[in-house]
Design goal:
261 residues, alpha/beta, UDP N-Acetylglucosamine Acyltransferase, domain 1, 5-stranded parallel beta sheet
Protein backbone atom coordinates (compact mmCIF):
# COMPACT_ATOMS: atom_id res chain seq x y z
CA UNK A 1 0.00 0.00 0.00
CA UNK A 2 1.28 3.47 -0.93
CA UNK A 3 1.11 6.16 1.77
CA UNK A 4 2.68 9.61 1.32
CA UNK A 5 4.86 8.28 -1.50
CA UNK A 6 6.26 5.48 0.67
CA UNK A 7 5.25 1.86 0.85
CA UNK A 8 3.46 0.82 4.00
CA UNK A 9 3.44 -2.78 5.20
CA UNK A 10 -0.03 -3.71 6.40
CA UNK A 11 0.24 -5.33 9.86
CA UNK A 12 -0.87 -8.91 10.25
CA UNK A 13 -4.44 -8.76 11.53
CA UNK A 14 -4.01 -11.71 13.87
CA UNK A 15 -0.82 -10.22 15.27
CA UNK A 16 -2.64 -6.97 16.04
CA UNK A 17 -5.40 -8.85 17.84
CA UNK A 18 -2.83 -10.74 19.92
CA UNK A 19 -1.13 -7.45 20.82
CA UNK A 20 -4.46 -5.95 21.93
CA UNK A 21 -5.07 -8.96 24.21
CA UNK A 22 -1.54 -8.81 25.65
CA UNK A 23 -1.82 -5.10 26.48
CA UNK A 24 -5.21 -5.76 28.09
CA UNK A 25 -3.72 -8.49 30.32
CA UNK A 26 -0.84 -6.16 31.17
CA UNK A 27 -3.22 -3.42 32.30
CA UNK A 28 -5.72 -5.77 33.95
CA UNK A 29 -4.10 -8.93 35.32
CA UNK A 30 -6.79 -11.18 36.74
CA UNK A 31 -5.39 -11.10 40.25
CA UNK A 32 -5.37 -8.76 43.23
CA UNK A 33 -3.72 -6.03 41.13
CA UNK A 34 -6.51 -5.78 38.54
CA UNK A 35 -7.64 -2.42 39.99
CA UNK A 36 -4.12 -1.21 40.85
CA UNK A 37 -3.58 2.09 38.99
CA UNK A 38 0.09 1.28 38.47
CA UNK A 39 1.16 -1.26 35.88
CA UNK A 40 4.22 -3.52 35.71
CA UNK A 41 6.97 -3.09 33.15
CA UNK A 42 5.52 -3.98 29.72
CA UNK A 43 8.36 -6.39 29.18
CA UNK A 44 10.41 -7.19 26.13
CA UNK A 45 7.76 -9.21 24.30
CA UNK A 46 5.10 -6.46 24.03
CA UNK A 47 7.71 -3.81 23.25
CA UNK A 48 9.28 -5.84 20.45
CA UNK A 49 5.94 -6.89 18.97
CA UNK A 50 4.72 -3.28 18.82
CA UNK A 51 8.03 -2.12 17.32
CA UNK A 52 7.74 -4.76 14.58
CA UNK A 53 4.18 -3.73 13.75
CA UNK A 54 5.09 -0.05 13.69
CA UNK A 55 8.26 -0.61 11.65
CA UNK A 56 6.15 -1.13 8.55
CA UNK A 57 4.07 1.97 9.22
CA UNK A 58 6.34 4.76 10.47
CA UNK A 59 10.08 5.47 10.44
CA UNK A 60 10.40 6.27 14.17
CA UNK A 61 8.89 3.01 15.38
CA UNK A 62 11.08 2.69 18.51
CA UNK A 63 10.39 6.27 19.64
CA UNK A 64 6.63 5.96 19.18
CA UNK A 65 6.61 2.56 20.91
CA UNK A 66 8.27 4.16 23.93
CA UNK A 67 5.81 7.06 23.95
CA UNK A 68 2.83 4.71 23.75
CA UNK A 69 4.10 2.45 26.54
CA UNK A 70 4.78 5.50 28.70
CA UNK A 71 1.12 6.47 28.29
CA UNK A 72 -0.25 3.14 29.50
CA UNK A 73 -0.39 4.07 33.19
CA UNK A 74 -2.49 7.15 32.40
CA UNK A 75 -4.69 5.08 30.09
CA UNK A 76 -5.30 2.51 32.83
CA UNK A 77 -6.28 5.20 35.32
CA UNK A 78 -8.80 6.54 32.79
CA UNK A 79 -10.15 3.04 32.11
CA UNK A 80 -10.58 2.34 35.82
CA UNK A 81 -12.77 5.44 36.04
CA UNK A 82 -14.75 4.19 33.03
CA UNK A 83 -15.20 0.78 34.67
CA UNK A 84 -16.33 2.32 37.96
CA UNK A 85 -18.81 4.53 36.09
CA UNK A 86 -20.25 1.48 34.31
CA UNK A 87 -20.51 -0.35 37.65
CA UNK A 88 -22.27 2.62 39.25
CA UNK A 89 -24.64 2.99 36.27
CA UNK A 90 -25.68 -0.64 35.78
CA UNK A 91 -27.78 -2.31 38.50
CA UNK A 92 -26.94 -5.71 36.97
CA UNK A 93 -23.21 -5.21 37.59
CA UNK A 94 -22.07 -6.54 40.96
CA UNK A 95 -18.29 -6.06 40.97
CA UNK A 96 -15.64 -3.96 39.23
CA UNK A 97 -13.86 -7.16 38.18
CA UNK A 98 -17.05 -8.29 36.42
CA UNK A 99 -17.15 -5.09 34.35
CA UNK A 100 -13.48 -5.32 33.39
CA UNK A 101 -13.48 -9.05 32.65
CA UNK A 102 -16.68 -9.58 30.68
CA UNK A 103 -18.49 -6.38 29.69
CA UNK A 104 -18.25 -5.85 25.91
CA UNK A 105 -18.84 -2.13 26.36
CA UNK A 106 -15.78 -1.85 28.56
CA UNK A 107 -13.64 -3.84 26.13
CA UNK A 108 -14.71 -1.56 23.27
CA UNK A 109 -13.81 1.48 25.36
CA UNK A 110 -10.43 -0.08 26.15
CA UNK A 111 -9.73 -0.67 22.46
CA UNK A 112 -10.78 2.89 21.66
CA UNK A 113 -8.55 4.38 24.37
CA UNK A 114 -5.38 2.60 23.19
CA UNK A 115 -6.25 3.21 19.52
CA UNK A 116 -6.86 6.90 20.22
CA UNK A 117 -3.48 7.15 21.95
CA UNK A 118 -1.80 5.72 18.83
CA UNK A 119 -3.88 7.99 16.61
CA UNK A 120 -2.66 10.97 18.63
CA UNK A 121 0.89 9.81 17.88
CA UNK A 122 -0.02 9.99 14.14
CA UNK A 123 0.29 6.24 13.62
CA UNK A 124 -1.60 5.28 10.44
CA UNK A 125 -3.83 2.25 9.94
CA UNK A 126 -3.10 0.47 13.25
CA UNK A 127 -5.61 2.50 15.32
CA UNK A 128 -8.38 1.58 12.88
CA UNK A 129 -7.34 -2.07 12.97
CA UNK A 130 -7.66 -2.04 16.76
CA UNK A 131 -11.11 -0.46 16.83
CA UNK A 132 -12.30 -2.71 14.00
CA UNK A 133 -11.23 -5.69 16.10
CA UNK A 134 -13.45 -4.36 18.89
CA UNK A 135 -16.20 -3.81 16.32
CA UNK A 136 -15.93 -7.41 15.15
CA UNK A 137 -16.30 -8.98 18.58
CA UNK A 138 -18.62 -6.48 20.32
CA UNK A 139 -20.66 -4.85 17.54
CA UNK A 140 -19.50 -1.44 18.80
CA UNK A 141 -17.88 0.80 16.17
CA UNK A 142 -15.85 3.71 17.61
CA UNK A 143 -13.52 5.64 15.32
CA UNK A 144 -10.13 6.19 17.02
CA UNK A 145 -10.20 9.85 16.00
CA UNK A 146 -13.27 10.59 18.14
CA UNK A 147 -12.72 12.61 21.33
CA UNK A 148 -14.33 10.92 24.33
CA UNK A 149 -14.15 12.25 27.88
CA UNK A 150 -13.96 10.35 31.14
CA UNK A 151 -15.74 8.58 32.64
CA UNK A 152 -17.66 7.00 29.78
CA UNK A 153 -20.26 4.24 29.91
CA UNK A 154 -21.57 1.87 27.24
CA UNK A 155 -24.37 -0.47 28.34
CA UNK A 156 -25.10 -3.53 26.16
CA UNK A 157 -23.56 -1.65 23.26
CA UNK A 158 -24.43 -3.71 20.20
CA UNK A 159 -24.92 -1.50 17.15
CA UNK A 160 -23.33 1.65 18.56
CA UNK A 161 -21.57 3.85 15.97
CA UNK A 162 -19.37 6.81 16.95
CA UNK A 163 -17.93 8.75 14.02
CA UNK A 164 -14.45 10.19 13.55
CA UNK A 165 -15.12 13.84 14.49
CA UNK A 166 -17.51 13.13 17.35
CA UNK A 167 -16.80 14.96 20.61
CA UNK A 168 -18.19 13.45 23.82
CA UNK A 169 -17.89 15.09 27.22
CA UNK A 170 -17.46 13.58 30.67
CA UNK A 171 -19.90 11.23 32.43
CA UNK A 172 -21.82 10.31 29.27
CA UNK A 173 -23.87 7.10 29.02
CA UNK A 174 -24.75 5.32 25.77
CA UNK A 175 -27.10 2.40 25.26
CA UNK A 176 -27.36 -0.07 22.39
CA UNK A 177 -28.05 1.10 18.87
CA UNK A 178 -26.94 4.72 19.35
CA UNK A 179 -25.53 6.39 16.23
CA UNK A 180 -23.40 9.54 16.36
CA UNK A 181 -22.97 10.10 12.66
CA UNK A 182 -22.73 12.50 9.74
CA UNK A 183 -25.65 14.05 7.86
CA UNK A 184 -24.24 12.84 4.55
CA UNK A 185 -21.41 10.71 3.22
CA UNK A 186 -19.38 13.15 1.17
CA UNK A 187 -15.63 12.69 0.62
CA UNK A 188 -15.14 16.43 0.13
CA UNK A 189 -16.06 16.92 3.82
CA UNK A 190 -13.35 14.57 5.11
CA UNK A 191 -11.39 17.38 6.76
CA UNK A 192 -14.45 19.02 8.36
CA UNK A 193 -16.34 18.25 11.57
CA UNK A 194 -19.08 15.92 10.40
CA UNK A 195 -20.27 14.33 13.64
CA UNK A 196 -22.08 15.72 16.70
CA UNK A 197 -20.87 17.10 20.00
CA UNK A 198 -22.28 15.59 23.20
CA UNK A 199 -22.02 17.59 26.42
CA UNK A 200 -21.21 16.40 29.93
CA UNK A 201 -23.64 14.19 31.89
CA UNK A 202 -25.75 13.28 28.84
CA UNK A 203 -27.68 9.99 28.52
CA UNK A 204 -28.40 8.61 25.04
CA UNK A 205 -30.96 5.82 25.19
CA UNK A 206 -31.28 2.83 22.87
CA UNK A 207 -31.68 3.47 19.17
CA UNK A 208 -31.21 7.23 19.26
CA UNK A 209 -29.56 8.77 16.19
CA UNK A 210 -27.78 12.12 16.34
CA UNK A 211 -26.31 13.48 13.12
CA UNK A 212 -24.28 16.44 11.90
CA UNK A 213 -21.13 18.32 12.79
CA UNK A 214 -23.04 21.37 13.99
CA UNK A 215 -25.43 19.36 16.17
CA UNK A 216 -24.75 19.87 19.88
CA UNK A 217 -26.52 18.05 22.70
CA UNK A 218 -26.23 20.35 25.70
CA UNK A 219 -24.98 19.12 29.04
CA UNK A 220 -27.24 17.20 31.44
CA UNK A 221 -29.67 16.31 28.65
CA UNK A 222 -31.53 13.04 28.09
CA UNK A 223 -32.18 11.75 24.57
CA UNK A 224 -34.88 9.10 24.58
CA UNK A 225 -35.00 5.84 22.67
CA UNK A 226 -35.31 5.95 18.87
CA UNK A 227 -35.08 9.75 18.70
CA UNK A 228 -33.78 11.12 15.37
CA UNK A 229 -31.94 14.39 16.01
CA UNK A 230 -30.28 16.71 13.47
CA UNK A 231 -30.56 19.98 15.39
CA UNK A 232 -28.93 21.15 18.60
CA UNK A 233 -30.72 20.96 21.92
CA UNK A 234 -30.13 23.20 24.91
CA UNK A 235 -28.56 21.99 28.16
CA UNK A 236 -30.93 20.16 30.58
CA UNK A 237 -33.25 19.12 27.73
CA UNK A 238 -35.31 15.94 27.55
CA UNK A 239 -36.06 14.74 24.01
CA UNK A 240 -38.41 11.81 23.46
CA UNK A 241 -41.11 10.36 21.20
CA UNK A 242 -44.72 10.65 22.31
CA UNK A 243 -46.79 7.69 21.13
CA UNK A 244 -50.56 7.36 21.02
CA UNK A 245 -51.82 4.03 22.36
CA UNK A 246 -55.24 2.78 21.27
CA UNK A 247 -56.80 -0.18 23.08
CA UNK A 248 -58.78 -2.30 20.64
CA UNK A 249 -62.18 -3.85 21.47
CA UNK A 250 -64.23 -6.67 20.01
CA UNK A 251 -65.44 -4.45 17.18
CA UNK A 252 -61.91 -3.92 15.96
CA UNK A 253 -60.52 -0.56 14.83
CA UNK A 254 -62.64 2.10 13.16
CA UNK A 255 -59.55 3.30 11.31
CA UNK A 256 -55.97 2.13 10.82
CA UNK A 257 -53.77 2.35 13.88
CA UNK A 258 -51.37 5.28 13.59
CA UNK A 259 -48.60 6.15 15.99
CA UNK A 260 -48.14 9.87 16.61
CA UNK A 261 -44.61 11.06 17.15
Amino acid sequence: MLLNNKYMIIPNKKGVEILVKKVFRLLFPFNEKIADPEIPDPGKMIKEQLEIILSGLIPENEKVTGQFLDNLTAIKKTLLKDAQFILDSDPAAKHLVEVIAIYPGFFAIYCYRIAHALDQLTVPLLPRMITEYAHKITGIDIHPGAEIGCPFSIDHGTGIVIGETTKIGNSVKLYQGVTLGALSVDKSKASKKRHPTIGDNVILYAGSTILGGETIVGRDSIIGGNVWLTESVAPFSVVYHKSEIIIRNQNGFQEPLNFVI
